[in-house]
Design brief:
With about 260 residues, the protein is an all-alpha fold. Helix content is about 60%, strand content about 0%. The protein has a domain of about 180 residues: Vanadium-containing Chloroperoxidase, domain 1, CATH 1.20.144. The protein contains nine helices and no strands. The longest helix is centred in the middle third of the chain and has 31 residues.
Length: about 260
């Protein structure tokens, strides 16, 4: 299947050599390049009943995809890896010096990020419902693919969290150390909010290619990533990798399963 998420998974694995280094101030806001497309465009239909099997199929391809990385993938994998490297070198400075540590400010940003991600999570349900009751197949498909992308995103980010066990900014003076038992299940790397927001945004942007729709969903996803940093919940590197991983997951799901002509 596709090389897709292996690019981000490989970047994540590459962090093993960086250990407790620290991250960039940008998060997931930078424009992302086009993700690799499936070598064979299967355009498989997704149904509610078939959704669990579709997710399992996705995960098999995602976690084995590093073996299919090719030289041409370096055209955007290299900049992403460089961004992560720069980010890791500056995470501590960013969170301890640049980002406000005012509790009120941080709390407000956390509330915004939670509200935004709640909207992203509810979107597939709303789209599916509209599509079902209004007999709008495109909306119904968008809801199903959005749900699939969210589940795939959860599996990816939770898998990486269990590998890296990174401390949250609130711990250990924002040192952001990896492989710390204190991080436990609440590992900081990558950001769950960013991964899920960008996975859903990518599906919507691929299904509805209006410039206004794309600008809207990607602006909201960027808002999720940014407010996770401003809320002192994640380091910039956490949201950078989470955003990239989420976008790739959503793009892959939409490319693999869409049946209706995109952009209409």
């Amino acid at each position: 299947m596709k090389r897709l998420l292996g690019l981000v998974v490989s970047v994540g694995v590459g962090l093993a050599g960086c250990g407790p280094m620290v991250a960039q101030t940008g998060g997931g806001e930078a424009a992302l390049p086009n993700a690799p497309t499936p070598e064979v465009a299967t355009n498989e239909d997704v149904t509610v009943r078939g959704l669990p099997m579709a997710v399992l199929h996705d995960q098999k391809g995602i976690w084995t995809s590093p073996a299919r990385i090719r030289t041409k993938d370096l055209i955007w994998l290299a900049p992403l890896a460089a961004g992560v490297g720069v980010g890791l070198a500056t995470d501590h400075h960013t969170m301890s010096t640049v980002v406000s540590q005012d509790p009120g400010f941080n709390s407000a940003n956390v509330n915004v990020s939670n509200s935004l991600i709640g909207g992203f999570i509810a979107t597939p349900v709303v789209m599916f419902g509209v599509g079902h009751f209004e007999h709008n197949e495109k909306a119904r498909e968008t809801g199903l693919l959005g749900a699939e992308a969210l589940v795939d995103g959860v599996a990816v980010e939770q898998g990486l969290k269990l590998v890296f066990w990174r401390e949250r900014p609130a711990l250990d003076h924002s040192r952001g150390l990896f492989w710390q038992s204190a991080a436990g299940w609440d590992s900081s790397f990558p950001s769950s909010h960013a991964t899920l927001a960008w996975s859903e945004a990518a599906v919507i942007a691929e299904e509805y290619r209006s410039p206004w729709v794309r600008a809207g969903v990607y602006t909201l996803a960027t808002g999720v990533s940014l407010t996770r940093v401003l809320g002192q919940e994640h380091f910039p590197t956490d949201v950078l990798v989470g955003s990239a991983a989420g976008w790739l997951v959503g793009h892959y799901v939409a490319k693999r399963h869409h049946r209706h002509e995109m952009g209409r």
